[in-house]
Amino acid sequence: MTSRRTYHHGDLRQAVLAAALDVIAAEGPGALSLRDLARRAGVSHAAPAHHFKDRVGLLTAIAAQGYGLLADALAGAPDLRERGVRYVRFAAAHPAHFQVMFQPALHRADDPELLAAKERAAAGLRAGVAGLPATVDAPRDTGVAAWSLAHGFATLLLTGNLDEPLGGRDPGEAFRALTGLLGSAQLGGGDGE
Description:
mainly alpha, disordered C terminus, Tetracycline Repressor, domain 2, disordered N terminus
């Protein structure tokens, strides 16, 4: 029975991705090994290479999947503030993806699937800046500032640095309140919140 599992797996690609995300969430991307992932999936040590070629290919697939999930999370957000809230919630829901996505040294920067997914996510972020009032002189700088705020908050959240300050509050709601404290009525479309 074991030898049959070694040669056939229902969805090996997804099984390896899921196992990799578990490892990354628990131990970080540096702990990934295709051989270990094959063992976890119950397949031969060479089987994952058919889908990912190597460790970098696997990490590239994880980054592409993550950017796609981020783009989906951002879709339909009414304004820049809500895009930030969704960004933070995405990071909280997908910490392993988040760890890999923003470390370009881990993946192939020229991978077509990764490039397409990154562009979709970037378009979702840019759409929030496009909705800002015309008085904003530098929309690109505003976008970088907003991304930095959301990304920094998400990173602090994932590393446990906000556990005490949040005191159990929902991270998305805490981020929304933080942007209000910083006088970001423009981020919310000028609603004066």
